[in-house]
Design a protein that fits this description.
alpha+beta; 3 domains; Alpha-Beta Plaits; Arc Repressor Mutant, subunit A; SH3 type barrels; single chain; WYL_dom; WYL domain-containing protein; CBASS_pafABC_assoc_protein; 10 helices; WCX_dom; 297 residues; globular
Length: 297
Amino acid sequence: MSVRQTIKRYTKIISLLRLRPMSFKEIQAEMEKDPDAVEENLTTSIRTMQRDIKAIASIYDIEIKNDPKTSKYYIVEDVEDLPSKRLRENFEILNAIRMSRGFGDSLVFEERRSLGTEHMAGLLHAIQNKLFVSFSYEKFWDDSIRDRKVAPVALKESRNRWYLIGRDENDQRAKNFALDRIGNLFIEKSGFEPIPYDVEKEFKDCFGIINGTNEEATEIILSFTPEQGRYVESLPLHPSQSLISKSEEEFQFRYYIRPTYDFKMEILSYGNKVKVIEPKEFKEEIVKNLRATLSQY
């Protein structure tokens, strides 16, 4: 059996047991209902499944045990890290795309500009080996193009875009560069000393990719309509989101976040489905923006 088939079998087992505990026979029966699993011949023996469970624990940090009373397998501890989760999800998407070929509009994709992912392998090599990179960069605001030399630190995803975070050698400041705006990427042979820049810490209280501004993190309380509140509850705006209360009239959430430009734009995008409760200063900024919008009409 190929490595691809083995990974697909691991992925299928995890997905099934996240739904509910299942016996070995139930797992095999579910696989037999899945056209992709049938095509890849993912059904297996009990002995192979027991080996799979050990491998899943080692690779994904997902512990699976069998309840002797019911003879059903269940997930005991699920501490799959984010990179592993994203890799597994992308693997599932690739399988779905492969299956959809020849089935018309089974999968419908958004039209969008390239994400610049062709640069990722080279940039990761430069980051890991602390090598300077040079490239031409097209700015968002005025479409001007400038040559840059950067000491790369990390790659960060934000709102369906990937960004290079690094020190711009022109002014020695840490900046963010969208990969889809990078052209003529060149990996320099010259290296740089480690940069004391903690990406997790720098972006911990940020909504998206904007940081390094004057806004301090603060507690923000938002009130959503029940319809919008249920959506926000299922897909949080920020990791700090916590539910204060919910009723037939409203859902209230608390955040600890920097009220940066991109967060303000996110709040404004909800229109009359959201209301800022606290703090007063942020509420006044949103009101000011709403009045400026109304003045356009």
